[in-house]
Amino acid sequence: MPSSPKTLQAILGAPGLRGEKVTALSKDGLTAFIQSTISTKHEMKEPFYVLDLGVVMDLFDKWAQTLPMAQPFYAVKCNPNPAFLGTLAALGSNFDCASKAEIDSVLSLGVSPDRIVFANPCKAESHIKYAATVGVNLTTFDSKEELEKIKKWHPKCALLIRVKGPDDGGARCPLGPKYGALPEEVSPLLQAAQAAGLNVKGVSFHIGSGAMQFRAYREAIAEAKTVFETAASLGMPKLRVLNIGGGFTAGPQFAEAASAVKSALQDYFPNEPELTVIAEPGRFFAESAFTLATNIIGKRVRGDLREYWINDGIYGSMNCILYDHAVVTCTPLAEASKHGNPTCKGAKTHDSTVFGPTCDALDTVLKDYPLPELQVNDWLVFPNMGAYTAAAGSNFNGFNTSAILTYLACSNPI
Ligand SMILES: *Cc1c(COP(=O)(O)O)cnc(C)c1O
After folding, report:
1. Which residues are catalytic?
2. Which atom, in ligand 1's list, is nearest to the CA of 119?
């Protein structure tokens, strides 16, 4: 079901976007939009992002169609761009925040605090106190120490016990090594919460970001079921919330992940009309919505090898190569050297290295990558750059990731 014009109007007027220019893209119009941005706005040739709101709307529809029983709480850490958050808020997403500042950025969009889960199992006391002040009343825990802090600063907060699933799903970024109660820790933790008079409402897990093996959802949902039973056997009020976390990637894998979730819900939680299922997708919504344009600022020729320097790299947006184990791709936009054929269709390619701008050899973005002969001032365009990119970049060597501008566009406008 395509998003209605009403939805689009609501998004364009939403906090985070209001007053921003949004350019409608025709089919395959992204390249043309990047070209016009380069020629009209980027004399200084700084890198920039394009956020395609049409992609976000499509993904939101896809989620609602494929996993309608799981309310999405978008994981802000994945990409906190305000226009992106505003779009998700207008579409009806809720939010997963991990810090005071993330809570602030979501509340500042006019989102009510009951649409936020403070899904960080280990929070600073000052952040817990802040959550209490602003009315964020749902959080996760996996230790007795966390329960003590919550009891002290936010005793009315509803709690989800974060469990470590049996398997990290072959994830690009496993989270199990850091978070989640082990099976033998569950009962003592529930008893500690009960003794402290705290309100445990349900169970949460995360099978790992960029998961590949979706049976991990089934195993974690089975594990969650045993926690529900443990709580019942301890005489606690019935648990009602199941938080299946993130780990979803858009594209064909999504259907596979969703069917693993759905069949496990049917098998382990049949006939539970009162169960609320929530999820915390980050990558799913962010990854393909953002495209990054970078400028070629340097070149060296060594025999057959071509080496290029661009103005964003490992210490900036491409930190995803290190931290998110991402494999990035790019296409050329030869705005300076090939006016007649900027996308270089049919051009002979050379094995090329693409370096970032800092003076560290680690700052290498691509190796042995086929690119046509390009020149200084041409551009390289990187698709699928929305997840764990700008969010975790630094200002190392004076290259300021947080200064990279984002232009808004909308494909398939109605
Ligand atoms: C990072 C994180 C997410 C988002 O994970 P994705 O794999 O990007 O969907 C969700 N929940 C928690 C608790 C996280 O730490």
Report:
1. 359
2. 13
